[in-house]
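Whiteboard transcription, Tuesday session. T.W. wrote the structure tokens on the left side:
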């Protein structure tokens, strides 16, 4: 689960790079009920609010050749040390440590397999104000070519620990990740090797967010009504819940999940 009492290496912020910020705001407002609040600069960056709490943001996609996508930011208490660890482990720096007024500092990075991510060293602003509920971030996933290599990289950078689980029907190994020194209930994401997805070289490994919803099918209907698409689902995943992989009208991928109810206590427990 993702919480807002951020610890090092945990997701703490998420924003969307979109070719049309206002169109993205309309789409996600229709899907999740988010309200968009401009941060100035001609509306090129907007905060998404839900029940008065910031859950995400959207900014103008300006990087040459970049595709619309969600960017996950991980908490760090020392951004210079984290960036140095990324480079030592074979990753690269797209944007060096930069200040956002007194709010904090960020850097944009890429892992050795090509997945992009970011880090945030908080100042006055710690990160998202709500998580792990309907309409907010509850999980993140890395789709990559080599899980073992990815886990070595992120383990050396953040100290994450992993727990493997075999997917049913020979679907492969899914590794759930936990921040350094934290208990299993602080798991916040997963890593999945899907080399066939990237064999053509047209796409690179990537992170995507999983947003909670109280009704997966109703949310999927709103995605379609808003011009998005559903590459997979909705479908039930045992012990996880009902989920669907979605793309917004510009092609950015995200997942919606209605979590499975907690298992009942065993008799005599």
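and on the right, the sequence the group agreed on:
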């Amino acid at each position: 689960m993702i919480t807002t009492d951020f610890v090092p290496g945990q997701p703490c912020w998420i924003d969307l790079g979109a070719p049309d910020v206002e169109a993205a705001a309309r789409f996600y407002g229709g899907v999740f009920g988010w309200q968009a609040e401009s941060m100035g600069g001609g509306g090129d960056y907007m905060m998404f609010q839900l029940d008065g709490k910031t859950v995400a943001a959207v900014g103008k996609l300006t990087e040459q050749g970049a595709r619309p996508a969600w960017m996950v930011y991980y908490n760090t208490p020392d951004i210079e040390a984290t960036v140095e660890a990324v480079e030592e482990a074979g990753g690269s720096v797209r944007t060096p440590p930069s200040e956002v007024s007194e709010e904090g500092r960020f850097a944009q990075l890429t892992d050795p397999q090509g997945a992009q991510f970011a880090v945030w060293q908080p100042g006055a602003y710690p990160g998202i104000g709500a998580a792990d509920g309907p309409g907010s971030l509850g999980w993140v996933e890395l789709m990559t070519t080599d899980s073992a290599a990815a886990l070595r990289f992120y383990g050396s950078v953040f100290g994450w620990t992993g727990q493997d689980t075999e997917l049913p029907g020979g679907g492969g190994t899914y590794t759930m990740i936990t921040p350094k020194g934290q208990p299993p209930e602080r798991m916040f994401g997963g890593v999945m090797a899907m080399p066939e997805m990237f064999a053509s070289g047209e796409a690179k490994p990537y992170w995507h967010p999983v947003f909670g919803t109280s009704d997966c099918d109703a949310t999927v209907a709103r995605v379609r009504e808003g011009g998005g698409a559903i590459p997979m689902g909705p479908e039930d995943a045992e012990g996880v819940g009902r989920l669907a992989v979605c793309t917004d009208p510009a092609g950015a991928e995200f997942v919606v999940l209605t979590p499975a109810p907690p298992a009942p206590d065993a008799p005599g427990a």
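Someone added at the bottom: The mean pLDDT is 93.
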